[in-house]
Design goal:
With 229 residues, the chain is α/β, with parallel strands linked by helices. The chain contains eight helices and five strands; from the N terminus they run E-H-H-E-H-E-H-H-E-H-E-H-H. The model is unreliable at 1-13 (pLDDT under 50). Bound molecules: iron/sulfur cluster. Residues 19, 21-22, 24-25, 31, 88-90, 102, 105-106, 109 line the site of iron/sulfur cluster.
Length: 229
Amino acid sequence: MSQQTLFPIDDTPLGSPSCHDCKLCQVRTKIVFPTHPAASGILAIGEAPGAEEDVTGEGFIGKAGKKLDSLMAAHGIARSQYGRANVVRCRPPGNRKPDTEEKEACLPKLAAAILKFEPRVLLLVGGTAVEAFLGKGLVFDHVMQSRRSPVCDLGKAHKALRNGLRPLLNRQEGLLCVPMPHTSGLAWNRYAKDGSRWSEIGAEQVALAVHQAKIAYDINRTSRGEKLL
Ligand code: SF4
């Protein structure tokens, strides 16, 4: 991908490496910090680190992460060219879903990372991330809504995100959110409400995120007085 990021990559720490703000600190091995969206402007957001991520401290490296890498690669976006983050940074035991208290403790940190990175598009991977930003409801319904309008007004987002991300709503391109089903093998083989496979819908949503990131990039360039080719 030839686009350059509009924002410099800043590697200063995005939080304490010894955070004790929720009980997951007692069971984690390593905190998995968010990574910068880089050239693509896309930040993928999942639920929580899994077993491999917990040991290495790197996000999205299991099978589901590799699946997302391959979907991005189909658009010329390498792993180093998109960012990764999770609703919570520490692994819940047994890969259970993060509970209310854990999300409340960690989502302000995610909001701070998003404000710092200023991604052009948030690619919400799986039900937990989709609900945090877009509110309750079926992932399929959120997917269909995102095809009509990918702009999120945060009205149904978790209150930690509503409060933390409000400054981004003033951007010309708004806060672009593209939801997609989880990329785990289990989810991937299921069928959605319209009979499509989740794998087809996932690939289409990644294409939508790439398309929206390009549009946001062009809007930014135009607003700075640059001519588009
Ligand atoms: S999940 Fe988040 S809030 Fe909880 S200990 Fe880890 S970094 Fe801190």
